[in-house]
Write a structure and sequence with these properties.
Blueprint: H1 2-48, H2 50-65
């Protein structure tokens, strides 16, 4: 009986550790995915000319108002 309880505790511990590891991997995957999405969006903005347009607008605004 004691061996069965010990094996059940061991199995529960292994299962708990596996769940923690899986949660950590999911968190890392989400962060990597989030960073990849940011990078893809930044490249899209740069490629489409939005960054240049914003930069030119800000520079012209600052020169008009002498900031």
């Amino acid at each position: 009986m004691e061996q069965t309880v010990a094996w059940m505790r061991m199995a529960a511990l292994v299962h708990c550790r596996a769940q923690r590891k899986e949660r950590k991997l999911m968190a890392v995957w989400w962060i990597v995915s989030k960073e990849a999405k940011k990078e893809a969006f930044r490249k899209y903005l740069e490629f489409s000319g939005v960054i240049d347009s914003l930069t030119k607008g800000i520079v012209s605004f600052c020169t008009l108002h002498h900031y």
